[in-house]
Inverse folding.
């Protein structure tokens, strides 16, 4: 059974962004499975991949913020940077041997993504649709 399951309640009504969010769900599910299997080699790699893909995804959203002059762009970008910083810090500590990946970090990733999509991201949905993104 998947740790995170996509359903329509997560849709921001922009196909490109929904696809990226689904990919993040898949990546967190892989991370969860590696954590459960205590696969340290895979965890480090998956954490790197998750950081890289999250940066790609955030960049995609932020391009649209700038293109359409989204009013809440700066605050939203700050939230993105805070998340990247927190996960990047966890990865650095993991690489240095001072951080054990546990269910706590896995739950953090899940909870953050769910709250971000259903809260902050949902706020741009109508705005993006009104600017031609569907």
């Amino acid at each position: 059974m998947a740790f995170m399951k996509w359903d329509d309640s997560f849709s921001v009504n922009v196909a490109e962004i929904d696809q990226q969010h689904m990919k993040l769900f898949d990546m967190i599910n892989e991370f969860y499975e590696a954590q459960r299997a205590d696969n340290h080699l895979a965890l480090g790699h998956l954490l790197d991949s998750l950081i890289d893909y999250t940066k790609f995804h955030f960049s995609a959203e932020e391009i649209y913020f700038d293109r359409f002059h989204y009013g809440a762009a700066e605050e939203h970008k700050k939230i993105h940077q805070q998340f990247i910083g927190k996960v990047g810090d966890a990865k650095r500590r993991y690489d240095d041997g001072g951080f054990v990946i546990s269910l706590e970090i896995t739950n953090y990733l899940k909870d953050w993504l769910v709250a971000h999509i259903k809260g902050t991201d949902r706020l741009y949905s109508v705005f993006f649709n009104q600017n031609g993104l569907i």
Observations:
- The chain has one domain: 12-130.
- The chain is about 75% helix and 0% strand.
- Helices lie at 15-36, 40-68, 73-95, 103-120, 125-130.
- Residues 40-68 form the longest helix (29 residues).
